[in-house]
Amino acid sequence: MSAREQPRKRYWNEPEMGWYEKLYLPEILKGLAITGGVFLANMAKWMTGRKGALTTYYPEETRFDYAPANRGKHVLTRRPDGSPQCIACNMCATVCPAKVIEIEAAFDPADAAHPKYPLRFEIDYSRCVFCGLCVEACPTQALRPDRSVDAHRCLSYLSIEHRGAIPAELRPRLGQRVFGCDTCQSVCPLNQYVTTAAAAPALISAFPDLIEEFMLDEAAWKARYKGTPVLRARFAGYRRNLAIAMANTRAVGAAQALQTALEEELSADLRETFLWALAQLNAPDTWL
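and the corresponding C-alpha cells:
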C-alpha cells in the first residue's frame, strides 16, 4: 500500500518563500557561510591565545569560569516599597516543564497584606529553550520579554490564590476559565514530551456548565470537589470566576442567576463582581 502524501503544515505567521529561497541551495550555502565564519573566528581566537566559544553539555558539564552557584539572570517585579510582588505560591515552579525554577518561601508576620514572600528565587536559564512562545501567548502579558514575571497579572494566581476582586481590566482576559490558566503550558515546546500529566483526568471540564456550577451552594460545591485542588480557590473565589466567565461568554440564563445571587448576603468584593458581570450582560453586544 503506497503511503499517502501529507501536506506540510503552514503556520499563520509563516512568510511566503520567493523563488530564490525555494531553490534551497543558496540558503544552505548562506547558513554554512555564517556557521563557518563563527567557527573560524573562534578558532583564530584560540590560536592567538584569546578566549573563544566554549561548548559544554549542561548539566553534566559546567564551564570552568562559571561559579558553582550560577543560575543565570532573572528579575522579580517589585512593589513601590521595593518588596517583590511574588508571593511564593510556587505555581511557576510546579508547572515549569523544564523544572528550572526553585523557590524558598518565608513569612513576614508584620506584613498583613503580603505575609508570604520568596526568601530565595532562582531560575536556571541554561535549561530554558528561550523560544518566547509563552511570552507571546500569555493573555495578560504576565510573562515579559525581559525574563520577569508580574504575578499579579497571572490568571492562575488571580483565579486560584487571589482573594477579593479581580482587576476589572483583566476580567475579559479570563474568558471562560474558572480555575487557573494553562496557556503558557499549552504552547511550551518542552511539554510535547510530557505524557503522564496529559493522561490524568481533568479536574474541571474544559467547557463547564457555568450556570449549573454557579447555582451550587457551598456544601454541594465542597462535596463535588472534595480532595481536589479546586478547593484552593475557595467558594467565594470560584463563584467570582464563574460570574466573570458567564459575562464573558454571555451565557444564557446568567442574568437571572446573578440577580438571584445578589439577593444573598455577599461580601463587598463579590457583590461588585456580580454587578459588573450583570452590567456586561445588559450592555449591547459589540462583537462584529
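(Above: one complete record from the training split.) Residues 207-283 form one domain.
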